[in-house]
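Worked problem 6 (solution included).
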Amino acid sequence: MNSRGFSADHIPIILLKTTSEESTDLYATHLLSESTVDDYNFQPQFIPVLEHKFNHDPILSVVESLGQSPDHPDQLDPTLFPYGGLIFTSQRAVDAFNSALFSLSLYSNQAGVNEVPSTVLRRLQSLKIPLYAVGPATARALKEVQGLLLPFCTIEGGELAGSGNLLAPLILEHYNAIHSSTDFGTRSWTFNKEGNKKPLLFLAGEKHRDTIPVTLTSAPAEQRIVVEEAVVYSTTTSLNFPSLLFSKLHATSSASIRWLVIFSPTAGGQLLSALGWLDEATNRIYGSQHDCWKDRTTFITSIGPTTKEYMRKEFGFEVDVCATKPSPEGVSKGIKQFMQKKGLPGGTSQSIRAQDG
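Solution. The predicted structure is:
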């Protein structure tokens, strides 16, 4: 154990993401379990990069205008709810949605106020629409909201759709299948009171890709789905990120190998600069002959193709590993395969030899 808190054979995995409890974070749990199984001695660590500000207004404006069923005041008239489904492409969008509903729930429990919010929440619980999610993490976050407030909604995508490119065709197939279903109870939620196909509501951040809206709105006429977008959160870089990053890099500088995992493009430039790999004059990485690349022991993983492309286009940097799935398993698998292929120390020598020959 050295003076900086880790053994020489430990491999720091610095994840540029927020975690509330490292003992329960799925990335920490999985990477530590990999150390036990494969003797890689991964040491997961976290640096919060982003701060999020939620915008409840577009969510509450939809929820508070829910129309009641003529026969059942506590239930929702399917034709009056304006959307046939909701689209979530990040955990933050789910958090914003949940936060808005929670604020409504708190309001309904205050003494001396009318019962409208409470009634609205009961109507909300009668919703029977699909909730489309990009990736398993977003789906897991939605599962919690579903259990509390949306028991009749279904979650689609998740593990089967780790990106917008994969989720968009899934939505086209699934939503149109519902719309044309012979089960009136199922398809009634996709029709508005004029008898037309309802749009979907895309709950997104201030900065987001338009892959899903473009794909759905440019489909053939009979499959085309209108998408309305609502910005439900904004993102800024944490003011503490630069100092935390420098501190963590210093603390792990004597490691024989270390990895940094990027979860969004936001931190890319600051990371490359902190590592000494970025030419500040050109905002591009140094050429291959520069001293910073000599005997390199720091490697970079991106959580998916969006971040990978951003690093390439913006800085001319090719990440060492791009996770095939945006998950703990995808990250660890990519790192292990890279290390085995390069013959880097860390795993068992047997696994390295098996991979090489």
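Discussion: The two ends are 33 Å apart (CA to CA).
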